Sequence to fold (407 residues):
Amino acid sequence: MTQSTRLALALPLVTLTVLTACDKNPVANDTPVDPTVPINMPTLGRGLEGSRFTAEIAVRNGFVYTTTWSQRFAQGNTVFTWEAGGVPFLADSTRIEDATTLGDVQISDDGNLLVVATERVPGRIVIFDRSRTDLLVELSQFHSPETDQGVHTAKLGRVGGRHYAFLSIDPGNNEPPRLVIVDITDPANPTQVFARAMGLPFMHDVFVRDGILFTAEWDDGLGIWDIGGGGKGGTVQDPVQISNIHTVNGNVHNVWWFHDPTTGEKRYAFVGEEGAGFAVGSSSSGDIHAVDISDIENPREVAYFHVPGAGTHNFTMDESSGILYAAYYNGGVRAIDVRGDLSVCPDGARAADGRCNMRLAGREAGKALTDGSPTVSIWGVALEGHRLFASDMLSGIWVFDISDLER
Fold:
């Protein structure tokens, strides 16, 4: 969510003058040319929480963690813990003092830590021990002058045997947006190892894998950096840029680098665009962009996924099935089949600039909450086993059965 949106007071259904999601490179019409019909993902249950706007979501071992955003009936400064072995129910809540709003919630790859990003001043991360999954125990907090304006997102990754948190810092008070990297190998004693001004006008998110860092730099595009695995001599303490690409429409919000376990290909990075006209529960815009990085020094955009009247926010992947699951705010949840060559496109699904419209090409494999009833504003999605969890800003969490999409 953009800084200007985050700063606005939000109500359950915000009435604003909005911009309808639009395709800047339209094909002749918006009717899919492939007869594939996306399946409706069955709902398994809901966890209801309406006092605050629900934000990001993470899941592990049958427990779901959600952050909260802005101001609703109460301040968005609380992490909720849900037990979700069956129908989700609230098991605990953890208030973070001095936080105006919360951003990311991330679970470490070993499941031992949970990290929460906080906004606004004093921006920081809070590191919890989650060895007792139903009870979070605070281990430490990290704050520095470079994080003071607010930590919007915090992503975790391991490089060279050490554990890091990659923080995207808000601009403000004549301070630029920044990327800050913190070593959390000893989670009780986090240490800053890197800080750099980055992004225009926002530094929004990152993705880290195989010693490669992808940075979502809004209108400065998608940056790709060697931090230990890119062959350019880069390190976490001194990243070396490999390349950069400006995806169509800009507003680079988030990234996922797909590793296909079936073919071994690492060809595509998927880039989320957060477009204009967001209003809670009623409107959003922005596409998912498929960037071919098979030549990582010369990335090129080859395809996109466009939903009329709605825009993407955060997404995740079931890589074993080649399915990308995306939160689409008022447009519900979308499941996209991204296997194979995304540049191959049926007649009638290719935009004027040569990119393939994946929805028109029949790649939408599944969907949920897309008919407008009930009103939803889906912020994020998370996977565990045969279930997809979605955070709804207006009502809490939803749980869907994705068995029919697994292959």
